[in-house]
Amino acid sequence: MKINLSGHHVDVTDSIKEHVNDKFSKIATHFPSLISLDVIISKEHGEHQVELRTNYEGSRISASGTNEIMFPAIASAAKKLDAALKHRKGQLKADKHEKPVSTTPEIAHEIIQEMKLV
């Protein structure tokens, strides 16, 4: 999985990149069909905000986390993204196991009544 990391009013250092890669390596193993993940870290009014966006099985999934300290904000966002991905995976599984809709069978005596027997 490719991780696109960017910062807004935050310098993205090697330690931040390493921490982000460690946090999302578990998600990459659980959901191998994920191609890329966009991570935006910003700091506004003394709070760090982390926004995560990705595509999974045809739907756009996003999660965000905020905290005064950056690393717990990343952990919070990762936990929310994991929960959202699990929810989407459950929806896809439920769709595969959907029960077929049965149509009402035609009753033989109704068909015979409609026929014109001479």
Structural notes for this entry:
One of its GO terms (molecular function) is ribosomal small subunit binding. Keywords: Ribonucleoprotein, Ribosomal protein, Translation regulation. It comes from Shewanella woodyi (strain ATCC 51908 / MS32). Associates exclusively with 100S ribosomes, which are dimers of 70S ribosomes. Belongs to the HPF/YfiA ribosome-associated protein family. Short HPF subfamily. By secondary structure, this protein is of the alpha+beta class. It has a single domain (2-99), classed as Ribosome hibernation promotion factor-like (Double Stranded RNA Binding Domain, 2-Layer Sandwich), CATH 3.30.160.100. Helix content is 43%, strand content 30%. It has helices at residues 14-30, 70-96, 108-114, and strands at residues 2-8, 36-44, 47-56, 59-67. It has a four-stranded mixed sheet, with helices on one face. The longest helix is centred in the last third of the chain and has 27 residues, at 70-96. The N and C termini lie far apart (74 Å). The mean pLDDT is 84.
Keywords for this entry:
ribosomal small subunit binding; rod-shaped; 3 helices; ribosomal protein; 118 residues; 4-stranded mixed sheet; Double Stranded RNA Binding Domain; translation regulation; alpha+beta
